[in-house]
Specification:
Layout (H helix, E strand, L loop, with lengths): L1 H4 L5 H6 L6 H8 L2 H4 L2 H9 L2 H7 L1 E4 L17 H9 L5 E3 L4 H13 L8 E4 L12 H5 L4 H16 L5 E2 L23 H16 L14 E3 L18 H8 L1 H8 L4 E4 L3 E2 L2 E2 L4 H11 L5 E3 L7 H5 L5 H11 L4 E2 L3 H12 L4 H17 L13 H6 L3 H14 L1 E5 L13 E4 L25 H9 L5 E4 L11 H10 L3 E7 L18 H11 L5 E6 L8 H5 L2 E4 L7 H9 L64 E3 L3 E2 L3 E2 L5 E9 L5 E11 L10 E10 L4 E8 L6 E2 L5 E2 L3 E8 L7 E6 L1
Parallel strand pairs: 1-2, 1-10, 2-3, 3-4, 5-6, 6-9, 12-13, 12-14, 14-15, 15-16, 19-27
Antiparallel strand pairs: 7-8, 11-16, 17-20, 18-20, 20-23, 21-22, 21-26, 24-25, 26-27
Length: about 750
Amino acid sequence: MGALAGPVLSRRAFLAGSVASTALAARAWSAPRAQARDLHIEDLLRRMTLEEKAGQLSVFRSPKDNSKINPLGGARITRDSAREDVRHGRSAGYFNGFEIAFNRELQRIAIEESRLRIPLIFAADVIHGLKTTYPIPLAEAASFDPDLCRRTARASAEEATAFGVHWTFAPAVDVARDERWGRVVEGAGEDPWLGARIAAARVRGFQGDDLRAADSMLACPKHFAGYGGVQGGMEYNTVDIPETTLRQVHLPPFKAAFGAGALTTMAAFNDVGGVPCTASRRLLTEILREEWRFRGLVVSDFEAVNELIDHGYASDDEDAVAKALNAGIDINLGEELYRDHIPALVRKGRIAEATVDEAVRRVLRLKKAIGLFENPWRSLDADRQATVVRRPDMIALAREAARKSIVLLKNDGDQLPLPKSGKSIAFIGPYVSDKADILGSWAIYSEPQKAVSLEEGVRAALGPDAPCSFTMGCASDRAINGGVDQAVAAARNAEIVVLYLGERERMSGEAASMTSIAIPPHQMELAEAVAATGKPVVVILKHGRALALSGAARDARAILCSWFLGSESGNALADVLFGDFAPQGRLPVSFPQASGQEPYYYDHRPTGRPQVDSVAAFKARYSDVPNEPLFAFGHGLTYSTVDYGAPFVSSLRVARDDVVKISAKLVNSGRRAAHEVVQLYVHSRVAAITQPVRRLKGVQHVDLAPGEEKLVEFELRTQDLAYIQPDLSDRADPGVYDVWIAPSAMGGEKTTFVLA
């Protein structure tokens, strides 16, 4: 296929235009635009008709898409219509089709029968694995370990590219501020500092070291921007926040993802301040391309261009297309609007052909960057599936990631770990033997029958004859005739009870916003009945968001967050329950006292009447619950006790160009080894815009043997103290700063220093 290729655009050259963060970027994009253009691409553009250009700006759902994850809208594509569209240059590619033979047929038509022989790109929603499923992204964020997230993304890419995928619509990097929002499950939680680091790690994992490699999968950080700030946590709702908040909270993970090499992004469904993101020139052109110098590609979300009409922002299809393309949407996903209307809109003068050309140029540059002109068959090799899918090292990684995602919220009386012998244990709840809801939202191409249930994991750990029973008691959302009685009988016959409660898969994810984030009523009835037996109770939570716990679930001796842990869920839970591995996860989201406390996030502002104790009146508080969360951001216990000493600063007064060091001594005063996730928080006492009570600025993972002491040290630079000012600049104010080295956003002693 060498004759098709033309000049090859290297990954480095492409990345140079994606973000102005390195000297290479400055050099590559300081030349006049005409000199930077690829002659092969310019020749294609010169030869293309308007209809062919519109085709390159359209990506359609594959006729082989059986995922049922999108509504039944968009273009109606059949196998025959896809063949004809490709033959006549009316499509840039397809998404969510995993039949390599059919994709190879379409690619052959593109490069042999279409007029310009432009290869197709194949995309998919690969969120947390394909056949091997890793923990949901929110769960992995609980590891506070970006490199773990990089490794699972890398493995996901290796597996997905064996099914012909070039481009994933992931990672979601939305900072979630309300746990009622279902898509909390897809991101890294409520903190922008942690979210930025995990976003960059996932991009590096998906894309690997060489974009043209057969196992490289383009990343697409989404949803640009502010989606995690939807009002009331309601899906697709409006976002009404000042630009200072948008830049301080919601944009940092995107900027980090582009800095890590992401070449595409997906616009958000929501509006910000009344302007839908799909038609926001402020977001897509002024900030993204002009300010950040992003030279990559922007794709709409599914049918989002058409939705401009329902937003009340466009009068009809033509108006929607004109506003989206002129704002900066390069590819229209899943519908025919661009293909049907761009040629006429150019002829009418509503869209400049130069605008169309620039969008097409971005698409062609992307295809060239991943080597499709050079090798149209990359990642379309069916033989790779036999050697890549569910490799033993991938299964081992899934188990490791699941273990590291588990958070121990409570462990009164050292109820955990459980003994492997000498005690009878009743495992009770709708998920004890379940596989249908084991993997979590967006595990749309997985094989749940190969996943490990809790029962299977426990049996494997203890042996088939261990004194354990497994009883459902109820379904996830309904009673089972006689189920509670059976569960109570099982509890009475056991010495310890483990309750497995929480959400089924479809209770979190897209279009799964909830007014109540409590455990469903039938499960709570089961929990109360079992707790009434007086047996010691351990609760395992299955969930895709923080939950509002109450009653027997809240009062259990021990509580484990197990999220949706993926293929190796049961084995990982058994590893932690029985002490082969100690829990080390930390909460990436705050657990509220009650659903009505939402939106709740740890880095809130203090207000003019901050609550200083639990009884003071006329303060910023609810009258029926404390202001503090039930379990704070960053919280997570180990099977030992780690004591934090008072923090020390290297200098009480710091010049703007200096580095201040903050240190504290940690002591493992318990009897078991501990893996501690140490966190650094800061607070500016006086600022031009009131600052959060704390902001996370550092994390260290520290292993401590019983009785061991270690000194941990963090460094802060002036830029670490910066915030978005009223003039939208990003800088730190002089003044007093509080700092904490702590096990969570609610703990630790503080010290201070002054920035001169």
